[in-house]
Design goal:
alpha/beta, Spore Coat Polysaccharide Biosynthesis Protein SpsA, Chain A, seven-stranded mixed sheet, about 200 residues, 7 strands
């Protein structure tokens, strides 16, 4: 199996807009950078190729320093960017693709390994890592990479489940704390800061 991890990112300047009520623009950019560095460090340590897809070319240095590769997105939107990255992966002969969001502060290497290994057999296979609310998708693994279309957005967990069923793919839900916890809201940020104080 040749696996590749795709990390989509809007760019530091535009990241974490839902935290505008509690963080100023520089603080949001600093937070987004810290989270992305962590996710990339963990993903690279897991072993597969790691590619960041983003419309922001200024991420190049950060991504390269982490041992990953940046692809500058041509179109607009998360799903469109992922489709671009998937096309490149298929062209490179990648047989399994994983998507990880760049805002998972508790992510560990075993979390990434568990997601990728869930599609480590002959497909068609789909593995979904739900968010803590069991509504969204924080991680997605596909074998082959084009077994389903990307359904990120509101209610993406159920949308990905339906897509897997339509494709006749074997579906696995990968429920792990490090994959489930993301930082989208002020409440998420407060939870993370409290956890950091405890540890």
């Amino acid at each position: 199996m040749t696996a590749r991890i795709i990390v989509p990112h809007r760019g530091l300047e535009h990241a974490k807009s839902r935290l505008a009520g509690v963080l100023d623009p520089d603080q949001r950019a600093d937070l987004a950078e810290r989270l992305l560095r962590h996710v990339l460090e963990v993903a690279v340590a897991a072993g597969p190729q790691v590619v960041v897809i983003s419309p922001d070319p200024d991420l190049g240095r950060l991504v390269t320093d982490a041992g990953a590769r940046l692809t500058v997105q041509r179109g607009m939107g998360l799903n469109a960017g992922l489709a671009e990255a998937r096309g490149a992966a298929l062209g490179d002969g990648v047989t399994a693709l994983a998507v990880l969001h760049g805002d998972l502060p508790a992510l560990t290497t075993p979390d990434v390994t568990a997601l990728v290994d869930a599609v480590g057999q002959p497909g068609p296979l789909v593995a979904i890592a739900p968010d803590s609310a069991e509504q969204g998708t924080n991680g997605l693994a596909l074998a082959p990479p084009d077994v389903i279309g990307f359904q990120f957005g509101h209610g993406s967990l159920e949308a990905h489940r339906r897509a897997a069923k339509r494709a006749g793919a074997w579906l696995t839900l990968v429920r792990r704390p490090g994959l489930a916890f993301d930082i989208d809201t002020p409440e998420d940020l407060a939870t993370w800061l409290n956890l950091m104080r405890v540890t």
